[in-house]
Amino acid sequence: MGRVRGMAAGSRIATLVLLVSVAAAQDNVYMGQEYRSIDLTTRYFDGCKPACGWTGNFGKEIAPGFGPVRGCGPVKPDGTQDRVPDGAYSACSDGGTSYACLDTSAFTEDGQRYAFAAISLDTTGGPYSCCECYEATFSEGPMAGQSLQVQMINNGGFVNRPLMDLHVVGAGKGDNNVVSVDNSALDPAPYGGGLGKTGADSPPLFSAEDWGDQSGLWGRRFSRYNPPNDVSYAGGIASVCGDQTSCFEACDDLPWPGREMCKWEFADDGFRGASIPPATLRRIACPAALYSRSGCLLREDQDFLTSAPPAVDDDEEDQSSGEQPVEGGGGGEEGCEDEIWATNGATGEPERYTCEDYARWGFCDEDWMRGWCRKTCGTCGGECSDEIWEVNSSTGQPEEHTCEDYARWD
């Protein structure tokens, strides 16, 4: 959707394929027990390159093979966007050429809601660092009891209240707007960043030349928080429609690449037209559905995803040999194997991979390699060990176990 996504050849492709395989089997893996509260969940769409598109805003290490959040060019007549170099300035600043990529708009896939968001980022490596992922569970309104998985890609610059701002095509613009030039009374603020102070010469994400005059189509800008009237945050399409039907119709008036993305905010399998619901956040390992779009994954997520063996159904048998799969390979016994069971991201089926496979993909230096590999540990360096990593079902944390542990547990 939206842009032409390119990856470097060789190790970067292998890295992504491997992690997609592991994440597919371990989606929604909790990385901690701590819960964080969000008072308001809002939406935005201003067209600007997100703050996590610069490595200088990262307080945590980016995983090998990945980078900061991708930036894109304006939307072309065929609905695509070109990739823009990571170092390009935001179109919301003077001389900038980098915009938000449409495929970081919230979406639902296989019944699971996903989103990218702005939040008050901690660039020193604390909570809410660039590219961290969370499970957000809502407690009020149409979204009560529902959840979504979200990656933090932008800085909200909010007031003294915990807010999360979901990136949704068709949501409200704020102080910044490089989406389109709006000459209607709905948007009297100047075009560009900082209410027209910067980026006024940047071409719009959706130019009038390619997409026609869009005055009034994108709705009102959302207003700043003004207690106690929280609803003052309403903006975008939500500010010019009432029920789901009229909101879908308003979305259909937008340039066609953004129509279905816009409808997510009002769809039953999307945000259900919720206003500004509170949420509880819990840190999760980033799912492939998110990092494959943003292009950003933290090293701690990569290490976590690959430190525990992929989930394999205990009842699933190896059809080729009639043997029960052994997660993580054998122990220190005679004849034990170095094979690892992981899910093939292309077929969705469990397959065996060897230490040589993982070495070839560039994962020799990972601790989990030395834990899983047996006879061919020398391929990756380090000392052999009979330790196996598994996730403790009670704590949600990865733990090391030995062959003696498994023998004792019968």
UniProtKB/TrEMBL annotation:
Catalytic activity: Endohydrolysis of (1->4)-beta-D-glucosidic linkages in cellulose, lichenin and cereal beta-D-glucans
SUPFAM superfamilies: Barwin-like endoglucanases (SSF50685)
Annotated InterPro entries: GH45_Enzymes (IPR052288), Glyco_hydro_45 (IPR000334), RlpA-like_sf (IPR036908), ShKT_dom (IPR003582)
Gene Ontology biological-process annotations: cellulose catabolic process
Ranges for domain ShKT: 336-380
Region (Disordered): 307-338
Presence of keyword Signal: yes
Documented EC number(s): 3.2.1.4
Signal peptide stretch: 1-25
Molecular-function annotations in GO: cellulase activity
Superkingdom of source: Eukaryota
Residues forming the catalytic site: D46 (nucleophile)
Electron transport found in the keyword field: no
PROSITE patterns per the UniProt record, alphabetical: GLYCOSYL_HYDROL_F45 (PS01140), SHKT (PS51670)
Pfam families linked: Glyco_hydro_45 (PF02015), ShK (PF01549)
Keyword tags: Carbohydrate metabolism, Cellulose degradation, Glycosidase, Hydrolase, Polysaccharide degradation, Signal
Family: Belongs to the glycosyl hydrolase 45 (cellulase K) family.
PANTHER family: ENDOGLUCANASE 1
Official protein name in the record: Cellulase
